[in-house]
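Narrative of accomplishments. A recurring question from our advisory board has been how the design workflow behaves on a single, concrete structure rather than in aggregate. To address it, we present the structure tokens for one chain from the evaluation set, followed by the sequence designed for it. No filtering or post-editing was applied between the two.
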């Protein structure tokens, strides 16, 4: 499922939440009576979904969502009130797709520009080295062992974080080093590992084109994200 469709699903969740949030201030809902099993089930479904999806409203891109207008659209659809309908279901679906695609493009471009700005400033700092590819690194500890080749297997400890400091992965925190092929990881890692003598600890700042590029990775790494890795090269593993 692509990111646009995921955002659309979030919007659907947000609709349910918005109904619950706004309904809480409505006298008719405050005074709702649960006269039957169906009444209780209906209320329970609304309540559970409201709590579950409350946070999804914060993920809505662009300006804050207009709850009143959202609920008006939901009510129109549920009641099939064609007289007050401002667009067809097909037009609504197309608009949602267009809105989220546009928002994703804007978000991706913003992420890219933020990364580029950071790298421009970071490369001027003392101790930061820039390679021909654009990879930036800083030596924390310089080891005395051999440097791995592209075909080697290595054992490392690392912590990966985003520009805002969010840690998205860390073998160091797990307390378990990782072994992999130097040529089996993102380009920034492949290049950086071959610079490091065994026993070294470096910080790498990896531009998006040497990382996960326009695709991103998982939930945390957005498209065009700059990545920061603190890497400790423990050993070259004999094969």
């Amino acid at each position: 499922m692509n990111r646009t469709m995921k955002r659309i699903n979030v919007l659907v969740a947000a609709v349910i939440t918005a109904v619950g949030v706004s309904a809480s201030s409505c006298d008719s809902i405050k005074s709702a009576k649960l006269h039957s099993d169906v009444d209780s089930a209906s209320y329970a479904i609304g309540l559970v979904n409201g709590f579950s999806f409350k946070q999804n409203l914060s993920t809505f891109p662009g300006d804050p969502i207009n709850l009143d207008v959202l609920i008006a659209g939901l009510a129109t659809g549920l009641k099939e009130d064609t007289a007050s309908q401002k667009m067809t279901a097909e037009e609504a679906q197309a608009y949602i797709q267009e809105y989220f695609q546009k928002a994703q493009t804007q978000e991706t471009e913003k992420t890219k520009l933020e990364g580029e700005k950071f790298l421009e400033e970071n490369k001027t700092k003392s101790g930061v080295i820039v390679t021909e590819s654009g990879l930036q690194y800083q030596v924390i500890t310089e080891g005395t062992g051999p440097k791995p080749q592209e075909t080697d297997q290595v054992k490392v400890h690392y912590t990966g974080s985003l520009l805002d400091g969010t840690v998205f992965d860390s073998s160091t925190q797990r307390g378990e080093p990782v072994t992999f092929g130097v040529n089996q990881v993102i380009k920034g890692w492949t290049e950086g590992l071959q610079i490091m003598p065994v026993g070294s600890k470096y910080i790498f700042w990896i531009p998006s084109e040497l990382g996960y590029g326009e695709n991103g990775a998982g939930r945390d790494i957005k498209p065009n994200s700059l990545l920061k890795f603190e890497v400790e090269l423990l050993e070259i593993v004999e094969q």
